[in-house]
Amino acid sequence: MTHTRNTPASRPPRSKTTLPADGHAGRSLRARVEPMLVRPLRDDRYVVETEHGTYVVDLDERDCTCPDHAIRGASCKHLRRVAIEVNAGRVPAPGKRASVCAVCGRRIHVPTEAVGPQLCERHAVAPGDLVRDREGGSLLVVASVTTDRADEHETETGVTVADYDTNANYGGHEPVVEAVYLGSMRPSADGGVDAAGAKRYAFPASRLRRVEDDRSQARLDTFAETATA
Prior knowledge:
The protein is an alpha+beta fold and 229 residues long.
């Protein structure tokens, strides 16, 4: 069974749309009920296409090229529409760009400078997270999350992570996560556990399942206590 799903990414509409009125009035109402299409630009501004013209919005500067804003200095319907779509996750916020999760294909927004395969909140892990190996069931602690693809990252034996037989059911395009087995970690001075010096193993991201239940966390805490006793 593969844990990598080629689910089509959910993309924003490419035609003008309207939004529910939700009891709004004035410019806020017009921002919702008038057909508009918002498209992000590479310089963190947005193009807003309407039935009457096309305008450029800068959220950071609270600026729009429409006459309503240019002449009256008002928070126009175009500024409001962009803010609504950013808050709803329909378009990336300034400083972010659109991407897809390498595991499930879900459309996500990541920092503009982010490189390599990306993960959504559901599949992302971070250094220090307790995870379980889907293959053997062992507990590990994440040491690092790389920007390398599993079919590009070579281990010390010269074999790519994706080429290991045990990784056949996981995507070669997924980012590589380095982790250490819980049993190989040493006690730290602060009463926790220390991964320094422990051998790191590389896995495709979806092979490691983040552990969040209290029982598994208790096992980590118990290990730290017994290791320092």
